[in-house]
């Protein structure tokens, strides 16, 4: 049988095996007395050429005879010898051979030497392989076990013996289940049987295992296995190599957990979602249960935290055990940690705390003894508490528990918890800052836009407002409904160029200006003229003195201003670069009135014009900004046509109409601010209005008082008659004295309040002043201001109207007391 070539990768046979080696026999004097065929093959000598000759004379060169004598001496001393010696071939060349020499005793005590010889390269290869095999079992750091076909253990190396904490002799003939715990045994044996059945090797397969001698610690091992066969292919068993990769596995797991934390924590700027993501990442890879608690001030989004002692708000809980969720505080609960608990110490010291064995640290028990007892019943045995800090600010803490996993937390687990808690804290702080800014934006929005519109006698209203930037919650578009005198109402929609807080701040200034102008009862075209001047001034304020840009600046705005009068059903409108409103009749017919198109606000110098519409009761006015009809990338005509379709379905409430418009025209995230104001017109019934034209005569005031008393009695407002008569008398008297002799118009309106209006052709504005005690007049308007809830003056093309409002719930005695008080100050009826 030929030996394999050196370096072939196969394990060679023993080169000194008798069937494969050369042999010779020497007598006690060194004479050759035996010579094998293999010896003839290796050295070329025939038996008859060597038998009887001294081996030293022809087999060894003179240079090597000293080494031969040393070998012979060792052989005499030790009764045998093995090693390498150069030998002369019959051809004269030197051949390196390996020798094994042993003494053989013949009859009569004669001694001979039996030599077994093999080529030196084969001996060296065999010795190397033997050394490797010896190293695998004696010095290799990787565990090695050899199993019979029934998986009983035949042999293990020293590394695996240390791993099992038993000697190699103690393990022989045992089974894997004698050393490992149940599920791990089944996994390993299943894989080894597959290797035996298929012959396919198992390569670097990782699996957990727990030793019966140390069940509290889980190890991770990498297993490779191959099937053993004899030269004929018979199965001898299976060999497996086992490497403890626990540290490597944990390092890889830590890295994977950190990467997962980076990817999964902070996907939104919602504080609650961020803390839930933190809890989800920690379970089950690191802990069996986790809770995230934030200082209450942080949970609210405040800038500074309260004292480290709390209170805290439970933001998130997660556990692999359903029962644990019933033991822990629920998300949303606010509480203080007992000063003796690890959590309280963590907050106070802002240092992580590791409690490997809870029973040896009873402080955690004091928070809630009843809950703590139930936690022990769930086998909670180990705890880590880590502070959540970012940018030098303490935000809260993270608590991690182990119950189902038997091994306690270690320092490596604490390091891992600190690392991803630090990353999570930055995300939580970003969410906190966003919450703070979002709340500021919502506060700004509440201050800039009407949140809940009251009931109006003139119109029923509904609105839709969507900022382009939902993070700020407000933009440059605005709408408003402003009550005016005479039961009228102003409807406003505007659009400042730009988005975000800058545009919102400008919008707020314009909205305030509109309220002021509306309170002065300016006509729509006059309101727009004043707004145009204001935008010019705001733009001038932002012009930098050095000519360099300061970021976003006001470059213009658009506005639509409409005034609706429910007594005449007339609506007066004016627009500054804004889209016209849509008018919807009760049967669903939609039209876009052809209104004069004024220039956008901020151009300056160009006039604005008003137009007047007469609207039937129940008509719907839709005022909107361009973001509504251009949101889906449509051109203006297509957007307006879709708006017509959305508004044309009658029989719906205004809220339903708003929803339909939004569904038809707007995507989920509009690219521009959107404002929509819907107003359904109402008309005051004829019996709610009384009007008279009175001649300019000395008796006009007396007649006005009688008409007022009669009308209020018919309306069931007798308790207001006396006060209203006084006010009407003063207003009519003033109109008679300063109206230039033209007729005076008196109008009474019963609405949510009692409205009294006196109109004349004079454009002179009445002024309120306090008369001195020596003055004979000048107290009339002072009386009006004292007896009414509101009063004012508005100007018309034909003159002016002085109006007053009385609350219908006002008691007559209250007004009488006011009159008595005025009388004490020297006033008498009829004074002006």
Can you describe this structure?
This protein has 832 residues and is α+β, with helices and mostly antiparallel strands. 36% of the residues lie in helices and 27% in strands. It has 24 helices and 32 strands. The strands form 6 sheets. A 6-stranded antiparallel β-sheet has the order 13-12-11-16-15-14, sandwiched between helices. Strands 18, 19, 20, 21, 24 and 25 form a 6-stranded mixed β-sheet that branches. It has a 5-stranded antiparallel β-sheet with strand order 2-1-5-4-3. α16 runs antiparallel to α17. The longest helix has 38 residues, at 411-448. The chain is rod-shaped, with a radius of gyration of 52 Å. Residues 1-9 and 773-777 have low confidence and may be disordered.
What's the helix and strand layout?
Elements: E1 22-27, E2 32-35, H1 37-43, H2 47-50, H3 55-58, H4 65-78, E3 80-88, E4 94-105, E5 111-119, H5 120-138, E6 143-147, E7 153-156, H6 158-164, H7 168-171, H8 182-198, E8 202-211, E9 214-229, E10 235-244, H9 246-264, H10 271-282, E11 289-295, H11 296-300, E12 312-319, H12 322-327, E13 334-335, H13 342-349, E14 353-355, H14 369-377, E15 382-390, E16 393-402, H15 411-448, E17 459-466, E18 477-483, E19 489-496, H16 500-519, H17 524-542, E20 557-565, E21 570-576, E22 582-584, E23 590-591, E24 597-598, E25 611-614, E26 620-624, H18 626-629, H19 636-647, H20 654-665, E27 674-681, E28 689-694, H21 700-714, H22 718-738, E29 744-750, E30 753-760, H23 780-787, E31 790-796, E32 799-807, H24 812-824
Parallel strand pairs: 21-24
Antiparallel strand pairs: 1-2, 1-5, 3-4, 4-5, 6-7, 6-10, 8-9, 9-10, 11-12, 11-16, 12-13, 14-15, 15-16, 17-27, 18-19, 19-20, 20-21, 21-25, 22-23, 22-26, 26-27, 28-29, 29-30, 30-32, 31-32
Helix pairs in contact: 9-10, 9-15, 10-15, 15-16, 16-17, 19-20, 21-22, 22-23, 22-24
């Amino acid at each position: 049988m030929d030996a394999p070539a050196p370096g072939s990768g196969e394990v060679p046979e023993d080169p000194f095996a008798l069937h494969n080696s050369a042999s010779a026999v020497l007598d006690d004097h060194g004479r050759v007395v035996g010579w094998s065929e293999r010896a003839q093959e290796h050295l070329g000598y025939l038996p008859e050429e060597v038998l009887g000759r001294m081996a030293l004379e022809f087999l060894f060169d003179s240079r090597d005879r000293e080494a031969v004598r040393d070998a012979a001496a060792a052989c005499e001393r030790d009764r045998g010898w093995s090693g390498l010696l150069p030998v002369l071939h019959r051809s004269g060349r030197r051949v390196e051979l390996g020798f094994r020499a042993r003494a053989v005793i013949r009859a009569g005590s004669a001694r001979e030497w039996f030599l077994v010889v093999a080529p030196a390269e084969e001996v060296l290869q065999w010795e190397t392989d033997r050394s490797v095999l010896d190293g695998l079992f004696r010095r290799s750091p990787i565990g090695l076990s050899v199993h019979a076909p029934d998986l009983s253990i035949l042999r293990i190396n020293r590394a695996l013996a240390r791993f099992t904490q038993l000697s190699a002799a103690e393990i022989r003939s045992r089974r894997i289940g004698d050393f490992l715990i149940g599920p791990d045994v089944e996994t390993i044996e299943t894989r080894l049987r597959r290797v035996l059945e298929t012959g396919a090797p198992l390569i670097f397969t990782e699996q957990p295992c727990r030793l019966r001698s140390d069940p509290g610690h889980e190890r991770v091992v990498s297993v490779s296995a191959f099937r053993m066969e004899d030269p004929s292919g018979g199965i001898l068993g299976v060999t497996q190599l086992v490497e403890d990769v626990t540290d490597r596995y944990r390092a890889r797991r830590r890295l994977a957990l950190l990467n997962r934390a980076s990817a999964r924590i902070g996907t939104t700027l919602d504080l609650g979602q961020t803390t839930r993501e933190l809890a989800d990442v920690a379970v089950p890879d690191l802990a069996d249960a986790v809770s995230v608690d934030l200082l209450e001030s942080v949970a609210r989004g405040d800038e500074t935290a309260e004292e480290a002692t709390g209170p805290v708000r439970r933001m998130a809980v997660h556990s692999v055990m359903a029962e644990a969720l019933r033991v822990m505080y629920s998300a949303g609960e606010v509480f203080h940690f007992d000063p003796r608990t690890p959590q309280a110490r963590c907050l106070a010291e802002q240092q992580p705390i590791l409690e490997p064995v809870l029973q040896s640290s009873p402080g955690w028990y004091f928070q809630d003894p009843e809950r703590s007892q139930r936690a022990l019943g769930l086998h909670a045995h180990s705890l880590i508490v880590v502070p959540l800090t970012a940018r030098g600010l303490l935000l809260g803490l993270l608590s991690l528990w182990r119950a189902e996993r038997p091994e306690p937390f270690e320092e490596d687990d604490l390091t891992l918890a600190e690392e991803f808690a630090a990353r999570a804290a930055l995300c939580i702080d970003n969410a906190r800052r966003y919450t703070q800014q979002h709340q500021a934006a919502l506060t700004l929005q509440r201050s800039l836009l009407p949140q809940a519109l009251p009931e109006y006698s003139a119109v029923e209203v509904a609105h839709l407002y969507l900022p382009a930037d939902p993070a700020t919650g407000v933009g440059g578009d605005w709408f408003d409904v402003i009550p005016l005198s005479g039961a009228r109402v102003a409807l406003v929609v505007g659009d400042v160029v730009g988005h975000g807080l800058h545009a919102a701040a400008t919008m707020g200034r314009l909205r305030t200006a509109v309220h002021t102008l509306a309170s002065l009862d300016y006509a729509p075209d006059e309101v727009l003229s004043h707004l145009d001047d204001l935008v010019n001034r705001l733009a001038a304020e932002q012009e930098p003195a050095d000519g360099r840009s300061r970021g976003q600046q006001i470059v213009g705005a658009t506005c639509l201003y409409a005034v609706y009068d429910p007594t005449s059903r007339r609506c007066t409108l004016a627009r500054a670069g804004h889209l016209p409103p849509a008018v919807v009749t009760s049967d669903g017919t939609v039209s876009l009135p052809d209104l004069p198109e004024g220039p956008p606000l901020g151009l300056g110098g160009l006039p604005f014009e008003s137009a007047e519409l007469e609207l039937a009761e129940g008509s719907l006015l839709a005022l909107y900004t361009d973001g509504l009809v251009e949101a889906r990338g449509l051109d203006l005509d297509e957007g307006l046509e879709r708006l017509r379709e959305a508004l044309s379905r009658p029989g719906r409430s205004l809220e339903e109409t708003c929803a339909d418009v939004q569904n038809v025209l707007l995507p989920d995230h509009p690219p521009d601010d959107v404002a929509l104001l819907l107003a359904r017109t109402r008309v005051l019934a004829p019996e709610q209005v009384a009007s008279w034209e009175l001649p300019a005569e000395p008796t006009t005031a007396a007649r006005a008082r009688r008409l007022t008393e009669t009308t209020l009695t018919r309306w069931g407002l007798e308790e207001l008659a006396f006060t209203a008569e006084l006010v009407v008398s003063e207003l009519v008297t003033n109109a008679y004295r300063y109206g230039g002799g033209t007729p005076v118009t008196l109008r009474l309106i019963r609405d949510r309040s009692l409205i009294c209006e006196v109109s004349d052709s004079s454009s002179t504005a009445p002024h309120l002043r306090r008369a001195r005690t020596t003055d004979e007049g000048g107290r009339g308007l002072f009386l009006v201001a004292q007896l009414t809830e509101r009063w004012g003056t508005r100007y018309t093309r034909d003159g002016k109207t002085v109006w007053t409002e009385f609350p219908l719930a006002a008691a007559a005695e209250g007004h009488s007391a006011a009159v008595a008080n005025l009388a004490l100050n020297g006033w008498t009826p009829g004074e002006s």
